[in-house]
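User: Hi! Is it possible to get a structure for several chains at once, not just one? Here's what I have:
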Amino acid sequence: MVLHKFGEKLYSGLVATMTFHLKEICSSIEAAQGGLFLEELNRKWADHNKALQMIRDILMYMDRTFIPSAHKTPVHELGLNLWRDVVIHSSKIQTRLLDTLLELIQGERSGEVINRGLMRNITKMLMDLGSSVYQDDFEKQFLESSADFYRLESQEFIESCDCGEYLKKAERRLNEEIERVSHYLDAKSEAKITNVVEKELIESHMQRLVHMENSGLVNMIVGDKYEDLGRMYSLFRRVASGLVLIRDVMTSYIRETGKQLVTDLERLKDPVDFVQRLLDIKDKYDKIIGSAFSNDKTFQNALNSSFEYFINLNSRSPEYISLFVDDKLRKGLKGVSEEDVEIILDKVMMLFRYLQEKDVFEKYYKQHLAKRLLSGKTVSDDAERSLIVKLKTECGYQFTSKLEGMFTDMKTSEDTMQGFYANVGADLGDGPTLSVQVLTTGSWPTQPINTCNLPTEILSICEKFRNYYLGTHTGRRLTWQTNMGTADLKATFGKGQKHELNVSTYQMCVLMLFNNTDRLTYREIEQAAEIPASDLKRCLQSLACVKGKNVLRKEPMSKDIADSDAFFFNDKFTSKFFKVKIGTVVAQRESEPENQETRQRVEEDRKPQIEAAIVRIMKARRVLDHNNIVTEVTKQLQSRFLPNPVVIKKRIESLIEREFLERDKGDRKLYRYLA
Amino acid sequence: MEVHHTDVRILMLAWKMKAEKQGYFTLEEWRRGLKALRADTVSKLKKALPELEKEVRRPTNFLDLYSYSFRYCLTEEKQKSIDIESICQLLDLVLGSQFRAQVDYLIEYLKIQSDYKVINMDQWLGFYRFCNEISFPDFSGYDPELAWPLILDNFVEWMRAKQT
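Assistant: Yes, the chains can be modeled jointly so their relative placement is included. Here is the combined structure:
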């Protein structure tokens, strides 16, 4: 017919016929009852498609020639459009279709089983008719009614469930919807419906969930509920600012607990325990972030900044961390494998990194190290060295050069002693044996120069050593540091019990006095030994007032030492140990006044460092304004401590006075470097 | 000449003469100064004083006089600072007429503070700048984060505490 120029007639005839036919189909579908409605629709649709195919095949010539030139809709498309207009958009069918679909979905949500295959065919039909049909005739409503549904359901849940249960339910619903889409909805609907669920179930109730009493985020953290936390993380991640909420609540909780810990006076009495608690807290949160928050970097950063915040709230943190290390290196690491030692030291380094006042740590570390080295009380030389290396890597060579000097001195002293005995050994005969450590003044913590009267029994060998040493090292000066030594004494008591007493040098001086007499007053001891009063009192206390170590007896028996007290050699001393340790050279938490003193020394040490930084900066920049100097100085020194801007200003003024700098004559905000 | 030796005009005269040492005029300095004042008799000298005062008041000259007055009080060879008591007197003498209120409070503060026992030239110059540039008594525009000498930071803090 087309060939005979009757294309138009054919075409319009097709349209008319099809329309008529479809109207009939329409009525038959409308007539379908209840559940059969969809099935009828589906069947008729399948038929229609088959018919369309045939028609297209038959009318292929027209499709190819007449239709393009006459700008008419191609046959197949025409067929679809007519189906859409006549059937789907018929007033009765349109709403009924939508309602049925939504009802079925709702039913499935309530637990009913529905015919998914049928659903798939119907939605596919809508997609075939055009994505706008799918959207307008189905999806839009679907999303809206889903939103309503979940809004109600979430309200129900939140009233009746605790946080963990709620999250489980939310997760379940979310997975359901995803599954639904994959089974019988168009793939593009997935993002849209998940958005709906996320908004209604998660976003609207985020705050309430996180802060829920007895089951919210903080409870989960306290109880190490990794699964619940993980679920919360993965759900909240889907929502804008969901993770920010979790992170903020977690951060303020960490800061709060941290702050409580560092200000808890009871806890602070035991530094080792205190630091252990810090490490435990870090471990706990590392584990949470690892297992539940998929090692999220932003959470790691929040944890780090929280630690930095509260560790530095307590100005004694550096001291305590050093005491912790001291404890570990003196006994805590005994019997621990090499790898575990490394792990513990790395953890200590991690805490060290948080410290703002690293120079304070250095001071204490030096003191404690000195005591460990000199009393020979270190568990593992390798562990000591390993920590020094870690500090060097972290802070640079300068930080550790003095510490390394201390180790060198110990080694050198060993060699010196060998040389001494090799050279002089023959002349010594039966006297006491001596072991000397020669300490280079610059490397070791500064000590007050205290000497006392050494007992005659050891004077000769001390002199021999001095002569030997100065013989081989000219131009040096040696001073005995009597407050840092130890001695082993063999003592025999009343009933012949022999013990070996391990004491400090001062204690030795006191005890040796009793070789000549059984009774001495405080004054007599003081005169004979010439030990400074406060040290002497402490020394006598440790010899006479401590149970199990009272090799001396005191009258009166009070705990404090008075100038009028008298001391007796305690004949009746007993101990189940042969070797009795009475020395007191162990590192301890400083008393308040000692702490003040150390702090003052630290402040004094900082002044030249600040000045050096100022001069370095001004030498490079020549002219600089005040604010920039402060910023640059802070930057340069931040690896050691945080300088106080007022102190910086004072140092600048001092440098001006000493004519290293001057104020610029024109712009008074500027400083100028004077060569 | 009927001018008291603690009068500021003596100071001005010394400045004009560029005298090195307080209380003394060398012959050279004397000659130089009188020449500058165009005075060769005592009465002419007396008459020249008001002119001198006016000359001094000019800002550039005043700054010069101001820093001169500090150096003038240094008696020892290597001395760089002046004790608080003398500084208070000097402040009163040199700045008192121009900045009465500030000077009074500053003197009060200097006497009760204990951070500094002496004042150096840098701080001395800071006082003048302070009176000149900072409005009183509100101190608006004063920023302790800038390069003001620390002693003035402390002074402003003390004043502000008093004002509340």
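The longest helix of chain B spans residues 42-57. Chain B has two domains: 8-57, 81-163.

User: Great, thank you!
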